[in-house]
Design brief:
The chain has 18 helices and 14 strands. It is α/β, with parallel strands linked by helices. It has 2 domains: 199 residues, Rossmann fold (3-Layer(aba) Sandwich); 284 residues, Rossmann fold, CATH 3.40.50.300. Strands 3-4-2-5-6-1-7 form a 7-stranded parallel β-sheet, with helices on both faces. Strands 10-11-9-12-13-8-14 form a 7-stranded parallel β-sheet, with helices on both faces. Strand 12, helix 13 and strand 13 form a beta-alpha-beta unit. Helix 2 runs parallel beside helix 3 and helix 13 packs across helix 14. The two termini are 41 Å apart. Bound molecules: adenosine-5'-diphosphate and magnesium ion. Magnesium ion binds next to helix 3.
Length: 496
């Protein structure tokens, strides 16, 4: 039997704020934990990526937090990365009403964070490093914090934040409520639970390896020389795509090279400034680029709706990394394709990884038709009031770079919500492409011709580097490269 947020004791004002976003039925982890957390219990939760943990802890926080004095927040959410902190605060604000949400993380100026703390923050979302830094400067005190959430506790442990997390918890009120969410509850996380939670209710939802059955997984044999072109083809068949590389340098290089193939990209990794990372994510989530090229920094916690594919350009470090990277697609019940590029020397390792994860997929030659067939069919409609939910309509002829319309503009009916529109579009494109392919015609030749060369400049750094198409190191493709590039520019379509 399905329940509602109201049944779980969620106040009406929050229920209706959520309903305005189309969120009416609690996900499993929410149904399991919200009532306990609202009753003041400590909660220790494990659930896969994309299962809705943010609302699971966010609703009880917003519902129960008291009003704070300046510089003395009443609730604290600790998160491992700036992106996640930003994302949590953004999501909380959508239903916070009068509750003041603040966010602090490193890599950006202190000014706005100090100002917000001075004027009063009820719920503070923070990364441990900057928070300790601000406390040391006397910018705030945690002594009145009586609700604490540790989000992605395992990740904070992996990143070496445990000592800081403990020091911070030690500064909060003794009688505090402590809620912890993590993808795993063993090791450091178990110790944290033992030392800082009192009689927690434990809720575990789903498999320990998240989401992996929700996505389709394909493994493609490629040579080192072919990887880049295969990646470009894959993106063109199933985008928005997130492409994972091992190194910062490799990500930057691949982003540039894909740019030369007509794929618009943004890169995100630890070597980029906060402003660059924020912009890259925004460009990606708003559909201004086809692909986000990332190192593992971006693998967890970042939620962008409707990611069609995850591409392991470099193999993940281990099976855990595979799961977390892959968890960027097929979130929240939506579909997705995960593509691993396998070079000859990597077959054995990836076989072993498959066994560790419990999947058994053949290693095939690259085949983008398969991607189109597996292309996700996202199911969730967003509320039409989405900020960027401008109606696309039949916009086949007008390019609107800053609007919320569809990324690729085909002659088809628009819908009012942009995300639904994008999902529909993906599905419809896939269907169209499949039928064209069956008929032997060319896929996606409609509506997008030549628009990649419009020089809008968002990704101009990807194309201004003076490299010629063959320069990327592989030398693969030879005389075909030009044709391939032209073909991609015709067929990939143009992001907004
Ligand atoms: P997690 O932290 O578990 O990885 P998130 O909290 O980021 O997952 O949630 C994933 C997505 O699901 C988000 O876009 C969120 O808005 C959406 N979502 C969460 N709960 C619900 C719900 N009850 N109904 C519909 N969408 C939801
Ligand atoms: Mg989360």
């Amino acid at each position: 039997m399905s329940t509602t947020f109201a049944h779980l004791g969620v106040p009406e004002r929050i229920c209706s704020a959520l309903a305005r976003q189309g969120i009416t039925e609690p996900f499993e982890i929410q149904a399991a934990t919200i009532a306990d957390a609202m009753a003041g219990r400590d909660v220790c939760g494990r659930a896969p990526t994309g299962s809705g943990k943010t609302l699971a802890f966010g609703i009880p926080l917003v519902a129960g937090v008291n009003r704070a004095e300046p510089r003395r927040p009443r609730a604290l959410v600790l998160a491992p990365t700036r992106e996640l902190a930003e994302q949590i605060s953004t999501e909380l604000r959508t239903f916070a009403g009068p509750v003041r949400i603040g966010v602090v993380y490193g890599g950006v100026g202190y000014g706005p964070q100090l100002k917000a703390l001075r004027s009063g923050v009820d719920i503070l979302v923070a990364c441990p490093g900057r928070l300790e830094d601000l406390i040391e400067q006397g910018a705030l005190s945690l002594s009145e914090v009586d609700m604490v959430v540790l989000d992605e506790a395992d990740r904070m442990a992996d990143m070496g934040f445990m000592p800081a997390v403990r020091r911070l918890l030690d500064q909060t009120a003794d009688h505090r409520q402590t809620v912890l969410f993590s993808a795993t509850l063993d090791g450091d996380v178990a110790r944290l639970t033992r030392d800082y939670q009192s009689d927690p209710v434990r809720h575990e939802v789903g498999e320990e390896t998240p989401d992996i059955t929700a996505a389709h997984h394909v493994f493609w044999n490629v040579s080192q020389a072919d990887r880049r072109d295969v990646t470009a083809d894959a993106v063109s068949a199933a985008w928005p795509a997130i492409i994972f590389c091992r190194t910062r340098h490799g990500s930057d290089r691949l982003a540039r090279q894909l740019g030369q193939s007509g794929i618009q990209t943004a890169a995100i990794h630890g070597g980029r400034s906060q402003a660059q990372r924020t912009r890259a994510l925004a460009d990606f989530s708003k559909g201004r680029v086809h692909a986000l090229v990332a190192t593992d920094v971006a693998a967890r916690g970042i939620h962008v709706d409707g990611v069609a594919s995850v591409i392991h350009f470099d193999p993940p470090e281990d099976h855990k990394a595979y799961v977390h990277r892959s968890g960027r697609t097929a979130r929240a019940g939506l579909g997705g394709v995960v593509i691993s590029l396998v070079q000859p020397g990597q077959v054995k390792d990836l076989r072993r990884m498959q066994r560790q994860i419990g999947i058994d997929e053949p290693f095939n030659d690259p085949d983008t038709a398969v991607l189109r067939r597996l292309s996700p069919v996202p199911a969730r409609a967003l509320a039409p009031t989405e900020p960027d939910g401008e109606t696309g309509g039949r916009s086949g002829t007008t390019r609107r770079p800053h609007s919320g319309g569809p990324r690729r503009q085909h002659n088809r009916n628009g819908r009012s919500a942009s995300a639904q529109q994008r999902s529909d579009q993906q599905r419809s494109d896939g269907q169209k492409d499949r039928s064209r392919n069956r008929k032997g015609g060319r896929a996606r030749s409609d509506g997008a011709n030549g628009r990649n060369s419009d020089g809008r400049g968002r990704n101009s750094d990807n194309r201004r580097d003076g490299r010629k198409p063959g320069d990327g190191g592989s030398g693969h493709g030879g005389p075909n490269r030009k044709a391939r590039r032209a073909h991609l520019q015709r067929t990939v379509g143009q992001p907004r």
